[in-house]
Amino acid sequence: MAYRILLVDDEKDIIETLAPRLEREGYEVSVAFDGQEALDKVKNDNPDVVILDLMLPKLDGFAVLERLRKELNDKWRPVIIMSAKDEMQAWHKCHDLEAELYLTKPCTIHDILRGIKTMIALIPAHKSQPD
User: Fold this and answer.
1) In whole angstroms, what separates CA 2 from the centre of its chain?
2) Which of 33, 7, 22 lies closest to 114 in space, CA to CA?
3) pLDDT at residue 76, as a whole number
4) Sign of dihedral through CA atoms 13, 14, 20, 21?
5) H or E element: which one contains 106?
């Protein structure tokens, strides 16, 4: 079974670089270029892990994360923030909104893959917990 990754970034070059690399690692990858599209893809594609930029059109990453956790009642779908915002305020806000990992761009493919593998390893533990 291939795990599904939703890659959300408005920078086309990041999508075009990262998506094929994740596919070569054996993941099924879907992409979204804005916050609203990201929420739609979560509902329709049911990804195992979301890699989310913060600076997005329509809805920023903070709003996506908040809606994911509150409106969609998605308590534990691993969300990896990958953002150029290298500020403690952004990190704290993502932590408060229950993001699992915060990577600052530019980051390496190895950092991204390590984050994905860690999140996937934790999925069975979270699914076995009562709601």
Assistant:
1) 17
2) 22
3) 73
4) positive
5) none
How many C-beta neighbours within 10 Å does residue 106 have? 9
- CA triple 77-83-89, angle to 5 deg: 90
> Both tokens of residue 97?
């909104």
The runs of H, that is alpha helices, within 25-56 are 35-45
User: What ranges make up the beta strands (E) of 3-124?
Assistant: 4-8, 28-32, 49-52, 79-83, 101-104
Amino acid making up residue 97: L
Sorted by where each starts, the structural domains of the chain and their CATH numbers stand as 4-124 (3.40.50.2300)
Per-residue pLDDT tens, the chain, 131 aa: give them.
799 999 999 999 999 999 999 999 999 999 999 999 999 999 999 999 999 999 999 999 999 999 998 877 766 789 999 998 878 898 898 888 888 999 999 899 999 999 999 999 987 777 666 65
Among residues 13, 18, 48, the alpha carbon closest in space to that of 110 is found at 18
- pTM summary value: 0.91
Q: Contact at 8 Å (CB) between 42 and 78? A: no
Nearest in space to 4 (alpha carbons), one of 111, 126, 123, 101: 123
